Amino acid sequence: MSTESSRDDFIIAIRSAFLKKGNRQKFSLFTLLIISILVLSLEYFKTGPVNQFRSITKDIIFRGSYVVSSPFKYVKDKYYLFQDHMSMYEEFSVLRDKDLDLDSLRKEVDFYKSENALLKKLIEERDLFSKEYMLTKILLDKQSPYLKSLIINKGQKNGVKLGSAVKDRLYYIGKVVNVNFLSSRVLLANDLNSKIPIIIEPSGINAILSGNGNDDYAELEYLPKENEIKENEIVYTSGSDGTIPASIPVGKIIIQDNKKYVKFFSNLNQLNYVQVNK
Amino acid sequence: MARENIKFYQFLLNGFPIILLFFFALTGYSFSFQIFEINISFNFIHLIVFYWVLRKPEMLGYGLIFFAGVINDVVQNLPIGVSSINYLLLCVIASFFRTRTLVPNLIYDWILFFIAILIVSSIHFTVLAIFFDGNISYGALMSTAFFSFLIYPALAKIFNQIYLLGLRQENVE
Questions:
Q1: Contacting residues of B for A38, CB less than 8 Å apart
Q2: Which among B32, B80, B88 is the nearest to A29, CB-wise?
Q3: Most buried residue, A26, A111, A184, B167, by CB count within 10 Å?
Q4: Dihedral angle computed from the Cα positions of residues A8, A10, A12 and A16, in that order, rounded to the nearest 10 degrees
Q5: Touching check for A148 and chain B: CB below 8 Å?
């Protein structure tokens, strides 16, 4: 008898939780759950009016999010500015002690560039990628354990294309994974879902740079078992995926416990403006 | 002027859970930081939804929770609708426990919250892994759930004080 009554109570509680609207509630949880499942099923439509509506909705939400986050972004920027200020003397000492003959280095680079252009002409190689970049402002900076991405203020209207490479100054930081009408999402190279074909120079070894959620370094996959990669070798994009241009510097090799990682040249936490490949 | 200030104060107290919910949905803040190479982050939306639906359901509408989920999905780059389902399931669990509980007890709520977020996080992971082929760190998801569980009593106390402040203000009027 008591088992039956407790089962009845259980069923009443379940029914009440799902269907009862309760005080000042306009919808029952059951109705909203059905709506959520319907909305989720719309994710399978990647083109057409559903996609356009989604794109506009995202633009509106990103702008709203930008406004709400701006005081916090201001505080974060000031914090990093303060940190930079505190380490200024130390950095100055390091630079003063280094023998940087920038003028001769620039001339040397110019020479290699022209030599490279001549050689490419000789073998009739054509550039597959545009060398033009557009400067964009970062609206939102999403750095959580699950997601490392940026929202930039340029989208379809400005000619941003899906898969375009994104640079911070000279260095590769990620690629465009979502293009809306007025904004786009950039997946950073340290995100768990980021996989980029790279080449390690001067050893010339190809591998895949795989994000691990860490802010400073990423992992290398598909490295040959026998390799002679040394610390401080430079990692460039290889361009073998056909979407990211080749030879963009990404980072340098660091070795920890006999495992090789790539330390990014850019500080992915302190980005305000980035360049998107046209 | 003073009356307007009181009204604004009253509005802030009554709308506190809604303001907080949309703040976290729009900014996506998880206050993540590292201690001894351990990533610590919190899911404040789970905490807000569970507490207010369990204790004061009249202050947080289900429709608003649904919209907060949609916003969170856009901001976090998740398939739109996933977070809404999670939050609404959390509401179902909280609402179910509310109807089964006679005397509110913080320790009891705390344990129930842990069970609830484990269920919701598992569903979240399953939906993303099976239907959307997303690479999501199970460890990070579970550690966020665990750290959110740890701070529940402190936040519940704060939320309760804010609710009492609002109640006091209403009685003054």
A1: 81
A2: B88
A3: A184
A4: 180
A5: no
Residue A66 in contact with partner chain B when CB distance is under 8 A: no
Handedness of CA B160, B161, B162, B166 (dihedral sign): positive
Domains of chain A: 47-86+127-278 (2.40.10.340)
Question: Does an H or E element contain A60, and which?
Answer: helix A48-86
Does residue B71 belong to the interface with chain A, where contact is any CB pair within 8 Å?
A: yes
Interface of B with A in 13-42 (CB under 8 A): 23, 26-30, 32, 39, 41
**Which one-letter DSSP state was computed for residue A5?**
H
Count CB-CB contacts under 10 A for residue A196: 26
Is residue A68 within 8 angstroms of chain B, CB to CB? yes
Name the percent of chain A lying above pLDDT 90: 6
Q: Please report the sign of the dihedral spanned by the C-alpha atoms of residue B58, residue B63, residue B66, residue B68.
A: negative
Please, what is the average pLDDT of chain A? 84
* Residue A272 DSSP SS3: coil
> Of the CATH numbers 1.25.40.10, 1.10.3720.10, 3.40.50.960, 1.10.1760.20, which one belongs to the domain with range B2-172?
1.10.1760.20
pLDDT attached to residue A42: 85
State yes or no: cis peptide before A202, omega within 30 of 0: yes
